[in-house]
Automatic annotation (TrEMBL), chain A:
It comes from Sphingobacterium humi. This is Uncharacterized protein.
TrEMBL record, chain B:
GO terms for molecular function: hydrolase activity, acting on ester bonds. Pfam families: TatD_DNase. Keywords: Hydrolase. Coiled coil: none annotated. Signal peptide: none annotated. It comes from Sphingobacterium humi. This is Hydrolase TatD.
Length: 281, 326
């Protein structure tokens, strides 16, 4: 079964008969002449679904949705993404049409449009758009691009990817929801993270534990000193376990006094996958 | 577009200490406020005072726009960034979209803006067309007022009408007559910025009457108390029209407090500061009103987990009493 069909199946399970009929009709109209019908259907969809339905949340197993990672989407967002999946045309017309949707979009439409990036035809056309989404100032829109979205990990070049990861930290996103986080980790990102760690430390602010995990292969001496201090002061057991992972990678470079106090804590270190899983919860 | 400074200190009344305790637990709507010109302090103060829903009419931003794109970006910000910004403070943000009277006088640009409007009026967060109407009462203003009334009729959405400062009574009556001429239902039209001089004409014709509590140039809220005592609470609503001028974003809750202190019944105060606006702008077509109660009752310190209940208090508070910024 194709992605769009799986999505449709899951979506229609949530809707009333009336809503299903409307969406089926709409899909038919889009097929007949999308240029005439799509904008109206897409933009006014919020007024076609009941309050309860449009805001209720839906998740699908990743295997069922292929390129789409549907985790806690509103039904409205899923329905809009499904509609977007029905659009097909030759390249130039397709791009022009989708660009206009972005240009006039309201907040929820933007969320749907960015969430649909992995589903759109001609992926190369949407790389700049994806970067713009990351620069967007609206939290929920950023989230639609950054979290549970396969487009960025498969299409962004390294520089843009690294900007996205840093942005995710700066704007308080759920880092473990970033698809491809570890696969696309790289030395340039680690260097930028180290710089960020220094800045946070100088400001005496919290340092996100995942920063240490991502940069653990490339921590200079000064960073290790900060890491030792932060580890000793850390109260939260899950955060502490993450910091321990970064310490373990650099075990041979740690200071004598630190090792004297904490050496035994390395003995029972858990595998990183388990630590991340526990932290996620 | 609501300021016109001609202070007359005698109209300012004697100061009464701010007593917001009497309105604790009440919720309010400010049906006319220009949040793009306001700070985050205002959002926090609004939330604290119980203003859970605001309506922001598209207006003149103080500096004339010279191109279509600045209109487009402004409208986009009303359905995008500003809406999100409000939500961070637990406030539901809605808007009305329109070409304001002042800029209707730039006809070549106005023509283009008219073509832009249909792209925006059906968007999420847009309740209707506004604020439109007369300012200098020119022919161009009339032309685009009429064109936008037609648009509202076609879309079957409410209209928020700005009435002029100068030659107000005549301008107000003219605005209503034109709306009736175009076949609009007065139930769908909010005539704003009323005064003692215009209120009777508006209510007699079956329109909603908005009152802007705006220091120095428009209504003071003591006068507002007298109006509600005289005309009752039906079809009357108050707003702050707070913008980039000296204005008070807490005008609605403050007026509610004053009305209660002056012996107006609580149900009447609720109508004038909440339910009439909800009904006039058909807000229940856009959100489940029960969610406003959820916001009112929610623990502001509870963590916001991306669900649709807005709790407020998710943004940190500055310590205003300290010279330390950390
Ligand atoms: Zn105004």
């Amino acid at each position: 079964m194709k992605t769009t069909e799986k999505v449709m199946e899951a979506l229609f399970q949530r809707l009333s008969m009336e809503e299903i009929t409307y969406l089926n009709q709409s899909a038919q109209q889009i097929e007949e002449d999308y240029k005439k019908h799509f904008v109206r259907i897409f933009s006014t969809l919020n007024r076609r679904l009941s309050f309860a339905n449009r805001e209720s949340l839906i998740s699908l197993p990743a295997t069922d949705s292929a390129k789409l990672l549907i985790v806690n989407w509103t039904v409205l967002k899923l329905a809009r993404v499904w509609l977007l999946g029905l659009l097909h045309d030759e390249k130039e017309a397709y791009q022009q049409f989708i660009d206009k949707l972005f240009e006039y979009a309201d907040m929820q439409e933007l969320e749907a449009l960015y969430a649909a990036l992995p589903l759109l035809d001609y992926p190369e056309l949407w790389v700049e758009r994806c970067k713009e989404g990351i620069r967007n100032n609206i939290g929920t829109v950023q989230q639609a691009v950054i979290e549970h979205n396969t487009f960025s990990s498969s299409q962004l070049e390294e520089e843009a990817w690294n900007q996205m990861i840093l942005k995710a930290f700066f704007t308080g996103k759920n880092i473990l929801n970033i698809h491809g986080l570890f696969e696309r980790n790289n030395p340039a990102l680690a260097a930028a993270i180290v710089d960020y760690i220094y800045e946070r430390d100088s400001a005496k602010r919290d340092i996100h534990p995942m920063l240490w995990v991502l940069a653990k292969e490339a921590l200079p001496e000064r960073a290790l000193g900060i890491l030792e201090e932060r580890y000793a002061a850390e109260q939260d057991p899950h955060n502490k376990s993450l910091l321990l992972q970064a310490l373990a990678t650099n075990k041979n470079q740690l200071s004598q006094p630190f090792m004297q106090l904490h050496a035994s804590e390395f003995d029972q270190i858990s595998p990183i996958a388990e630590v991340l899983e526990a932290y996620k919860k | 577009m609501c300021t016109e400074m001609n202070r007359d200190l005698s109209t300012m009344g004697k100061p009464i200490p701010l007593e917001l305790d009497v309105i604790k637990g009440m919720k309010f709507v400010d049906p006319h406020i220009h949040m793009v010109s306001r700070t985050t302090d205002d959002y926090q103060a609004l939330f604290d005072a119980g203003v859970l829903l605001v309506i922001e009419p598209a207006f003149w931003v103080g500096q004339p726009r010279t191109g279509l794109d600045t209109f487009k970006d402004y409208y986009s910000s009303l359905i995008g960034w500003e809406r999100f910004r409000a939500s961070q403070f637990g406030i539901r943000h809605f808007c009305t979209i329109g070409l304001n009277s002042r800029e209707a006088n730039n006809e070549p640009l106005a023509e283009q803006v008219m073509e832009l409007l249909p792209h925006f009026i059906y968007k999420e967060g847009v309740l209707g067309i506004g604020e439109i109407g007369f300012d200098d009462q020119t022919a161009a203003e009339e032309k685009y007022y009429r064109a936008q009334l037609e648009l509202a009729k076609e879309a079957n959405v409410p209209v928020q009408v700005h009435t002029p400062h100068r030659d107000k009574t005549r301008g107000t009556i003219r605005s209503m007559e034109i709306a009736l001429e175009h076949g609009l239902d007065p139930q769908m039209v909010i005539i704003d910025h009323n005064s003692e001089e215009t209120v009777k004409d508006v209510l007699d014709r079956g329109f909603w009457a908005g009152f802007t509590i705006y220091p120095f140039t428009k209504m003071g809220n003591e006068r507002m108390v007298d109006i509600v005592k005289t005309y009752g609470p039906e079809k009357i609503m108050v707003n702050s029209a707070a913008d980039w001028g000296i204005s008070d974003p807490l005008a609605v809750p403050k007026t509610a407090a004053l009305m209660l202190q002056k012996g107006i019944a609580r149900e009447s105060v609720e109508m004038v500061t909440y339910s009439n606006a909800i009904e006039a702008f058909a807000v229940s077509n856009h959100i489940d009103l029960a969610s406003l109660n959820d916001t009112l009752q929610a623990d502001p310190s509870a963590k916001f987990e991306g669900n649709t209940i807005l709790r407020g208090g998710q943004q940190p508070r500055l310590n205003k009493g300290s010279i330390i910024i950390s």
